Amino acid sequence: MKKIIIAFYTLSLLGCTLFKEQKATTEKASTPSEQHGYLKISGNHIVNQHGISPQLRGMSFSWSIWGGKKYYTREVVDWLVDDFQVSLVRLSMAIEPDGGYLQHPEEQAALIQRIADRAIKRGIYVIIDWHDHNADKNIEQAKVFFTHMARRYAGTPNIIYEIWNEPERQSWPTIKDYSIALIQEIRKYDTENLIIVGSPHWDQDVDIAANDPIIGYDNIAYSFHFYASDPYHQDNLRRKAETAMAKGLPLFITEWGVGESNGNGQFDLTKTAQWMNWMEEHQLSWANWNITDKEETTAILAPGAPTVGKWTPDHLTPAGKYIRQQLRELNVP
C-alpha cells in the first residue's frame, strides 16, 4: 500500500510539473511574434512558424509628415497593443512630399526606427512602408534605406518590408524590375523576413502581377489595397484578388479603409462588412488606414485626440469605433 501511495505521489508531482511547464510555455508565447515567429510563404499563403496562416490585423499610421506625424509615439503603440489589441502596425514613411525622406533621410529613418523598436518590444509585427507612388524614380535612395533597415533588423521576426506603396501608373515590368533590385539588396543582409512588393494601379491589379510573378526568391508577398465603400472597389476588385490567389500569388492587405479611395466619402457599413467577411474567408492579414485626426472618413481619430493614446469613445470617429471593435473581437488572445 505504501508503494502505491508513493507511486501516486510521484505521478502527481510529475503531472504538476508538466502542467506548470505547459502553462509557462503558454504564458511565455503570449505576444503575436512569439506565437507566430518568422512569416513564410507556402503556396499562395503567408504562414507562421507552425505552418498556419496567422492572419495579422492592425493599424496603419498615416504619412510620417504633416498632421499624422504627431501620432508616431511609443505611447500610441502601447495603446494600440493594449486597447485596440493589434497584432500589426504599419509605418508609412513619406518619401517625396515636403519634409519626407528625400529631404530629411536621417530624421525620417530615426522616426521609423523609434516606433518599430517599440512595436518589437511589445511583441507585434511591423510593416516598414516606403510610402511612395513613384519609387522607380527613387531607387537608389530606397536601396540605402532598406539596406540600413535590413542590417538593423536581420534576425528580428517582427519586421516586414513593404518596398513600394501604391504604384500609380507604372507598368508591372517597371514595378517588377524595381522590386527585384530591392529584394536583392535586402537579402544581402536579411535572408528571412517577409518582403511585400507593390502591384499596378494603386496595388489593385494583382491579377496582372500573377501572370508574371517574381521567382527565385523566398518569402515574397504582394500588396493589395481597397477602400470598402468605394463604388469601384466591389465585386470586380475582389475578383482580381481571387484570380491572383488562384494563380498562386500570396497577398497581404497592407492598406484598406472604410471610406472611399480619396480617404473621404461615404462609410457604408454593409459594403465594409462584406469586405471584412471576405478577408476572414481568405485568411488575409491587414492594416487599416489610418491613425490621424484629419477630418476625413478613414481617419480613426477626432480632431485633437491625444498623441499618447488613452483614447475615449469621444476621441474616436465612426471609423475608429468600428475598427477598434473589429480588432478586439477578431484578435482574440
Spell out the blueprint of helices and strands.
Layout: H1 2-28, H2 32-36, E1 40-42, E2 45-47, E3 57-61, H3 74-84, E4 88-94, H4 105-121, E5 125-131, H5 139-153, E6 159-162, H6 172-187, E7 195-197, H7 200-203, H8 206-210, E8 220-227, H9 235-246, E9 251-257, H10 269-281, E10 286-291, H11 318-330
Parallel strand pairs: 3-4, 3-10, 4-5, 5-6, 6-7, 7-8, 8-9, 9-10
Antiparallel strand pairs: 1-2
Helix pairs in contact: 5-6
Family: Belongs to the glycosyl hydrolase 5 (cellulase A) family.
Keywords: Glycosidase, Hydrolase
Pfam family, one: Cellulase
Q: How is this structure best summarized?
A:
The protein is about 40% helix and about 15% strand. The protein has helices at about 1-30, 30-35, 75-85, 105-120, 140-155, 170-185, 200-205, 205-210, 235-245, 270-280, 320-330; strands at about 40, 45, 55-60, 90-95, 125-130, 160, 195, 220-225, 250-255, 285-290.
Write a structural description.
By secondary structure, the chain is α/β, with parallel strands linked by helices. The protein folds into 2 domains: 1-28; 31-330, Glycosidases (TIM Barrel). It is built from 11 helices and 10 strands. An 8-stranded parallel beta barrel has the order 3-4-5-6-7-8-9-10, surrounded by 6 helices. A two-stranded antiparallel ribbon has the order 1-2. Strand 4 (88-94), helix 4 and strand 5 form a beta-alpha-beta unit. Helix 5 (139-153) packs parallel to helix 6. The chain is globular, with a radius of gyration of 21 Å. Mean pLDDT is 92; it is low at 1-28.
